[in-house]
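Changelog excerpt: complex records now keep ligands as SMILES alongside chain sequences, and the structure block spans every component. Example after the change:
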Amino acid sequence: MVKDTKYRIINISFQPEDSRRLHQLIETVNTSIAPEDLYLKIEADTLNVHLNKLDLEKFRGIIAPDSEEFLQMIIAEIEAIRSYGIKGKKRIYVDYNKERKVRNRKAKEENRGKYYYARGSSFSKENRKLPVAFLDQIFCGDSLEILQQLPNNCIDLVFTSPPYNFGLAYHEQQDEHFWEKYFQKLFAIFRECVRVLKFGGRIIVNIQPLFSDYIPTHHMISQFFIDEKMIWKGEILWEKNNYNCKYTAWGSWKSPASPYLKYTWEFLEIFCKGELKKPGGWENIDITDEEFKAWVVARWSIAPERKMKELGHPAMFPEELVRRVLKLFSYRNDVILDPFNGVGTTTVVARTLERRYLGIDISEKYCAVARERLKAAGQGEFPPKSE
Ligand SMILES: C[S@@+](CC[C@H](N)C(=O)[O-])C[C@H]1O[C@@H](n2cnc3c(N)ncnc32)[C@H](O)[C@@H]1O
């Protein structure tokens, strides 16, 4: 064996009658894979897999007709290891985070005052169930009034996109307020969202600032949550690749006087209540390795929704945006709230991904469309019939 290589050992027990077949498997594997990466060895009645690093695709390509079930067992054990580094095509299982380890990290974080602004919150840790009357429902009305009927700590994740105050042609709702009035109302609703959120829950808000009014809505909303002692977890840039916006106001063309900046993206601001970690069972994680690796890179290129005309709403989420948010930040069976649910994209995707939901919108027309979409998405076994 190669000197000085450290291995992670996986033990697989076997019956004496399998010994001959296993020796064949060992021969095949140990001649196909470099011993610095992985090798197999029998010790007493156990097959030991010595694992350092591995090109899993190459390993899956090994052919061992007589001992296929053992090979699959080894692959399943290796696949179940969730933390590893990546170098080229190989997963690194030993010392992969060694060089990034900072000594006394915890003490240093304490000294710096990691999320100091959220310290000393009075959030209760006692989480509750969302009352059945609100579970998997679309409510039509003012979110402020409806949220006031919910108990504290009963929602796992809020994902929403507030009305932008752009003067968009929403049904029934006049969307042009003076900014101060707009923020007053918005923050009253967001304060309720924080209250109904579970300890460990998340609020994710999609925001498109109105750059032409020089109102940095994404910063102002973030400051609101920081003042409420929520922990800022991060920010995702939703790159819409939308180059349709105007270039510059005539009069400032090709002049430093006041060039007009172009934005092809929107923001998703992510906040946590009480702590960064959200508890949940492994069996309720549904994100794949590939999705996880791609989506933790916090710039998501997703085209705007194409069905806005068809569904009669001017500012819908694309389903892909909601899918990524829910799979990356929530577990199956979590309760998802959208207090500005529009035609129901958040709730439809929540339903499809086996989450529970509550959607609220002030427009009867939008709520009716949301209910229709949910009916279409509602085939299958979920939620369980017993409930
Ligand atoms: C940006 S849209 C959300 C669209 C949604 N994400 C979708 O995919 O359909 C904002 C929504 O907030 C709703 N709204 C505005 N004020 C509200 C309030 N006070 N309570 C509930 N909904 C409200 C509007 O009717 C509008 O549908």
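The mean pLDDT is 89. The radius of gyration is 26 Å.
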